[in-house]
Write a structure and sequence with these properties.
By secondary structure, the protein is an alpha/beta fold. It has two domains: 268 residues, Aminopeptidase; 157 residues, 3-Layer(bba) Sandwich (Glucose Oxidase, domain 1), CATH 3.50.30.30. 39% of the residues lie in helices and 24% in strands. The protein has 15 helices and 17 strands. An eight-stranded mixed sheet has the order 1-11-13-12-14-17-15-16, sandwiched between helices. The model has no long low-confidence stretch (mean pLDDT 95).
Length: 459
């Protein structure tokens, strides 16, 4: 009889806790959807500041403004964390063309981040098309030397999660130019990393190791890639050539900052749950989805907690990391200083896949038993908000260094719907007008809900 009474009491207590959690989360969603401020804040970031590549004047403007924003919300702590970052400058607009006899066919092109300039007259050379780094290496120096290498591996459309397609195609942009340089190539052009077929080239970082040979490298639009590939298949080369000119430059590193806001834990002030995105962006547009949405959602999580009167047991930080795009210095510095300060980090969530409709969260480097317990504890509470897909997967570039310096931290990636992200990613189309207000607010509320559950119940 005593055993039955105990079990009944436990079940009753569990139901009461779940009801309290549901009410608290409902209150957070109401605040986000009725009084949300992340969309308005994103508008300011995009339209009043704009592109924010590391080391630029606009990056510093974004640092100053976002610190003032968090100060205005009255968080317990708001401060800057100094970090040295690369300062790469694109320079004058790039030019490119397919040269077929006397005909010049203009091609949309953008320099890859951290690449070098071409000679002032540009580069004109024959083209070698490859689909992989392995294929390029097999050709050898005798074939590659003096040519423009054209990496043309398309996105694999069979992946449901488009980030997987990006991951499997991305080595040609990041590693490809360095390999081509070792083989004596004159330059590299890369098919833009997207499935959409249009005339918007996608930039992104390429490997530029100090002391190693670096050659000019650029991305061409998918339409241009298809056209060039078709001409190669018609065996119009070597009669036809490719020309491109770019004016980029890598300047000395400059001082910049991570921007951090914190609500201090009422019970465990030296235990932390971090939520963040990256404040820097590429220089082709406004960095709306990549990653303006992420940093404004992160600030919104703390604003929601403060507005609804939730006082977390553990300290909760919003971290706006600097230099995710072309160096990852901000994330490394945050992890380094957290370890130096002997902080205990429970979890870190990164939002860097756009502000689209939230689907759930992925947990990095965890076991099947762990993810089963997470689902058993949290799924039913998150399910009414369609943010209950809790899976094993990646987390994020900025929080990844924490795994090495902060034992026990659980790294989590916010997972919105991925189908449209790479249509805009690293292009001139990544502007405020392509962000949906309600989707953005739902994402902020979803992260607030998960952080609340972790804060209340642990992992």
């Amino acid at each position: 009889m005593k055993k039955f009474s105990f079990l009944f009491s436990a079940v009753l207590l569990c139901a009461q806790v779940k009801a309290q959690d549901s009410l608290a989360i409902r209150k957070m969603y109401d605040e986000a959807l009725v009084n949300g401020q992340c969309y308005e804040n994103l508008h300011y970031l995009c339209k009043n500041i704009g592109q924010r590549i590391s080391g630029s004047d606009n990056a510093q403007k974004a640092v100053d403004w976002s610190k003032k924003l968090m100060d205005s919300y009255g968080f317990d702590k708001v401060y800057l964390q100094e970090v040295m970052v690369p300062h790469w400058v694109r320079g004058a607009k790039e030019e490119a063309a397919i040269i077929d006899g006397k005909t010049r066919i203009p091609v949309p092109i953008v320099a890859l981040g951290m690449s070098i300039a071409t000679p002032k007259a540009g580069i004109t050379a024959n083209v070698i098309e490859v689909k992989s780094i392995k294929e390029l290496e097999a050709l050898g120096e005798n074939v590659v030397k003096g040519k423009i290498v054209f990496f043309n591996r398309a996105f694999d459309p069979r992946f449901i999660e488009t980030g997987m397609a990006y991951g499997t195609a991305g080595d040609q942009r990041f590693m490809g130019p360095a390999v081509a340089a070792k083989l004596g190539a004159a330059g590299v052009i890369v098919r833009s990393l997207t499935e959409i077929i249009d005339d918007y080239p996608h930039t992104g970082a390429t490997l530029a190791t100090p002391g190693s040979k670096i050659i000019p490298a650029a991305a061409i639009s998918t339409k241009a890639a298809n056209k060039l590939s078709a001409m190669l298949k018609l065996r119009k080369f070597p009669a036809a050539k490719f020309y491109f000119k770019q004016n980029c430059e890598l300047l000395p590193d400059v001082k910049s900052y991570n921007v951090i806001g914190e609500i201090t834990g009422s019970e465990n002030p030296n235990k932390f749950i971090t939520v963040g995105g990256h404040l820097d962006s590429w220089d082709l547009a406004e960095g709306a989805h990549d990653d303006g949405t992420g940093v404004m959602q992160s600030v919104e999580v703390l604003r929601i907690f403060k507005t609804v009167g939730y006082k977390p047991k553990n300290s909760v930080r919003a971290v706006l990391f600097m230099n995710e795009e072309n160096g990852h210095k901000g994330g490394s510095k945050y992890a380094e200083l957290a370890a130096q300060n002997k902080e205990q980090h429970i979890a870190a969530i990164e939002t860097d896949e756009g502000g689209f409709t939230p689907r759930g969260f992925s947990f990095a480097d965890v076991s099947k038993d762990f993810i089963k317990k997470v689902n058993d504890n949290f799924k039913s509470i998150l399910e009414p908000y369609d943010v209950d897909k809790l899976t094993i997967g990646g987390a994020g570039t900025d929080i990844e260094p924490m795994k090495e310096t902060l034992p026990g931290v659980v790294l989590i990636g916010f997972r919105p719907d991925s189908q449209r992200y790479f249509d805009l990613h690293h292009t001139a189309k990544d502007v405020f007008e392509n962000v949906n207000k309600r989707e953005l607010e739902l994402g902020a509320a979803g992260m607030a809900a998960l952080i609340y559950l972790i804060d209340q119940h642990g992992l």
